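To: structure subgroup
Subject: Chain for Friday's discussion

All,

I'm putting the inputs and outputs inline so they're searchable in the archive.
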Amino acid sequence: MDAYLSSPDPSPGKITLIVNGETRRVAAAGSDLLVDTLRDKLNLTGVHVGCNSARCGACLIEIDGAPAKACTVLTGQVEGAEIRTVEALAQQDQLDPLQTAFRDAHALQCGFCTPGMLMAVRTLLQDNPNPSEAEIRQGLKGNLCRCTGYQTIVKAVQAYVSDTSDATNAANPDAGAVGTSPKRVEDARFLTGRGQYCADLNLASQLHAVFVRSEVPHARIVKVETREAENMPDVVAVLTGKDVAADQIGELRCGWTVHSRDGTPMQGGARPLLAHQTVRFVGDAFAVVLAESAEAARHAARRVRLKHEPLPHNISPTDASTSERLHGEAENNICFDWQFGDETGVEQILANAAHVTEIDLTNNRLIPNALEPRAALADYQPGRGSSVLYTTSQNPHMARKVITETLGFIDEHELRVISPDLGGGFGSKIFIYPEECVCLWASRHMGRPVKWVSSREEAFLTDAHGRDHVSTARLALDADHNFLAMNVETTANLGAYLSSFAAFVPTFLYATMLAGPYKTGTISCRVQGVFTNTAPVDAYRGAGRPEATYLLETLIDQAAREIGVDPVALRRKNFIRPHEFPYQTPVALEYDVGDYEAHLDRAMDLARVDTFQSRQNEAAAQGRLRGIGVSCYVEACGIAPSAVAGALGADVGLWESALLRFTPSGKLQVFTGSHSHGQGHETTFAQLVSDRFCLPLNEIAVIHGDTDKTPMGMGTYGSRSLAVGGSAILEATDKIIEKGKRIAAHLLNKSVDNIEFRDGHFHDDARNAHVPLQDVVHAAYVPHDYPLDLEPGLEASAFYDPINFTYPSGTHVCEVEIDPETGQIDLVAFTAVDDFGQIINPMIVDGQVQGGIAQGIGQALMEEALYNPQTGQPITRSYATYALPRATDLVAIETDTTFTACPSNPVGAKGCGEAGAIGAPPAFMNAVASALGVRIDMPATPEKIWRACLKRNHAD
């Protein structure tokens, strides 16, 4: 590519590019980024933008056969060069063998990183046609994947190299039974670069929005100077918080209310769409520039000036009560001081126990980092008085509800929200943010569509962060090592404003999980939620459950060290036994079923714990420290039932909906209120109905993410999609079958009481007669011979509200090795055995577990959002400063499952999406403590480990 590094012409003109074998004359300036030219001028949207800094690899292409990241190449530099993108791999809709290998190995989930990953593998194999696993991981190091954990990508490359890809499901569209692993039906569009993410969409005459954000952590706004920006070329308007206030637009409020221990409701935290009196964190938006192009808007945004009076700031949750008040109602910056459990009883037991273990620990702040940045495209249609919003949302219907309530000028039925393919979510796309609201308001204000796409730096600054707890925990044990009582005191950082679920996560989603799989007699938990001058904090994969499990499993390991017993034996002794279910915990939840020893035993066996001592001795002989850690968890999934959610302060019900519709041609449409952002719903939900109706998968279409098409639903989070959304689908299938029985009985001239449905036919076994499902469908739409009292058509809807949470559980085992001279830590083995109840597609479940473990290890090993306490400035605001796990940081993860049937929903499923992020951090950190002999807080950076080793050596 060096031959094309001449200075590009900055003036617009026609540039000749040779792209995917075709010569194209493109109207572009030589200084335009190549990624923008490919996407906006040539509609090659398989070239994705994840970071703008060449660190994620989502935009990887080939230029004259060499790899290049299109976000760092100027269009004029490659005039006349041969450019190849992912769109060129498949030929006549037939996947390239490498794409087939990715599909067969389930080497993709949300699909956003997949085009760049495919191009990276092509480069790797050109240089090394037969790479080892370590060489494959090294070759993938420049590309980030947030979903898969990389192991399936490695397997795909290995299968491609050895020509062992499995094409059976490509030739067998009927494969779809529950418990089997057909290849995902959604994968073809992701593998070929035809996925449709929000940033890929454009509307005629659209304006581009760029938000102007505070560069100071706390200040009173004196004036926003916009004149210079307004006079710049192609700028249409600059709108500020005063304009929002003048239109009497509302503020974003938390969707969950909790009360303090004195009975008062939580205080403060409402968020203006654009700050107009005070900015409260670095990244707080106070203006928006609207221009004819994104580039013009970006240039103009740099000319908007904020005149302000600085106010004292604070980024530490432990100092919040002594710092400047962020919200007038929140005295000492305390949003709530919440108490759960028998505080007095716990203190009495702690005072008289044979042994009490006490720890202080921090659960580090994280940034979710879905690889697809957030985006919004709003179109106000004055003729109808309605609007359409394309947005990156995990729950479109709730987005519609909250946005219309906030804006005030549009009713819920007048707003259509469409959430197309999502490039990952992990909780960060559940919430309603100011940007999509502002885009809708600005579209109405200007009479034109408005599009906004977040930069990666904006994502670091403004996407809701996760975790950030500071806790003290005490565990009381009797002389026989039984758990008697536990007390937890936590300060939870809420950031500068309350996000959608912010009050719920560190309270009811946290304290109710502190029992874990153990028979602790009584538990007390006090949580203070505090405001600081940092980005808002909300649910991140697991949402409260990882925080509780990390605290509990760390506390148990510390207790085992103090009393000199095996940590596994201590856990086993205190397990709830299978015969004790249903089991009422001291923290409100009633577990329905479980067998915790089963997955503990299986994990110990797979992890070869019995031979660990020999491996530890071998490491010691080489001057290295080796440790092994275990964690056991239970989580509450489904985030339901609605009556319970309402009693706990929710503003909405938490049911789910489905609509099933047979078309006259016999195909089946499944409309669901759930939403997929990599979980494979288009396959798993299709399997549910395929199994029930005996229909091929290719005759079933799953539709989601559009409020005008799908019934009202609650979206996807909390591992609720299958247990709640899938249950709604099954209830709708039951209704269709019941109607089909009446039609079949009429066609057979038999009593409906004699009709049974199985194997795709309605049977009258007594007379050895049957009617195929397709004949019933035909009769429903061509009712020439039809029951007179039955309406035509064959469709049914269902709303399912579960009777209980579901309770997945598992055991994770981690083995690490440490170089005490450098503090370098190597993950050498990880084993996870989980009980998810009924598994619909084992391949998809394993992918979810792998990805969750990778994120959990990321938190334990390297991830942490940091602010400078003196300046309030974010330190981690790019992939250069915030470390994410790459392929070289992880190893092959061994997974397995045990089974107890979930009695709380008709699917029998418990949920799997969050398990890895819950079980992995304590397993990893317990392994580190096992190696060091002392406990350190996450993340286990080399510096922390080196200092711990130094301290240990001095002590020796």
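Points worth raising on Friday:
The radius of gyration is 28 Å.
The longest strand covers residues 483-495.

D.
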